[in-house]
Amino acid sequence: MKIILGLGNPGEQYKKTRHNIGFLMIDKIKDSFQFPEFTLNQKFKAQITKGSLLKTPIILVKPQTFMNLSGQSVNSLLNFYKLSPADIIVIHDDIDISLGKYKLAINSSSAGHNGVQNIIDNIGTQEFKRFRIGIGETLKTSSCKLAPHKFVLDKLSVDELKILDQLYPNLLQDIQKLLL
């Protein structure tokens, strides 16, 4: 069994914000592989759904603790299912990577991402896999006047959503490679 988590913030006001790219990608996986609808699980402080990818049992997770407390959900899930950090894949936004790009990080520091740092703090290790989805290029342009903490909570534009849609098939391929 593997757990794939998308990081984000709960609530309509955060839907389709840059910081919720993890939720967006998890929703795409759910839809692509016809997982059941998400249900809120209070024990895990998360919305979860179960299915399979490449014959591997998968739990898709959207923590409902807000981004910076995501580790609470992760720790609860690992303990309940008796899994190790090697059994999780985390998907999150990364301001240091250009929009339309992503990087796989394995056993790496949080690089300043508070949600990832909270996971590391809660499970006691950074030895897990994560996909860092780029949102940064727009911030670096001179026309963007938002501070980084406001930029990540700003809504994605239609053009940005199209770029993420184009990125998704490659991301999904790389997730599947990790499951083999």
Would you write up a description of this structure?
The protein is an alpha/beta fold. It has a single domain, classed as Rossmann fold, CATH 3.40.50. Helix content is 36%, strand content 23%. It contains six helices and seven strands; from the N terminus they run βαβββαββαβααα. The chain has a seven-stranded mixed sheet, with helices on both faces. A hairpin with a 2-residue loop joins β3 and β4. The longest helix has 22 residues. The protein is globular and about 40 Å long.
Keywords summarizing the entry:
alpha/beta; 7-stranded mixed β-sheet; 180 residues; globular; Rossmann fold
In short:
The protein has 180 residues and is an alpha/beta fold. The protein is 36% helix and 23% strand. The radius of gyration is 15 Å and the shape is globular.
CATH architecture: 3-Layer(aba) Sandwich
Tell me the total number of β-strands: 7
> Briefly, what CATH class?
Alpha Beta
Strand order of the largest sheet: 2-3-4-1-5-7-6
Q: Give me the CATH fold name.
A: Rossmann fold
**How would you describe the oligomerization state of the chains in this entry?**
single chain
What about the largest sheet? 7 strands, mixed
CATH superfamily: Peptidyl-tRNA hydrolase
Distance between the termini: 12 Å
Structural class category: alpha/beta
Low-confidence stretches: none
Bin the helical content.
25-40%
**Mean pLDDT figure:** 92
State the domain count. Answer: 1
Judging from the principal axes of the Cα atoms, what is the shape?
globular
Helix and strand pattern: EHEEEHEEHEHHH
Cα-atom radius of gyration: 15 Å
Strand content: 15-25%
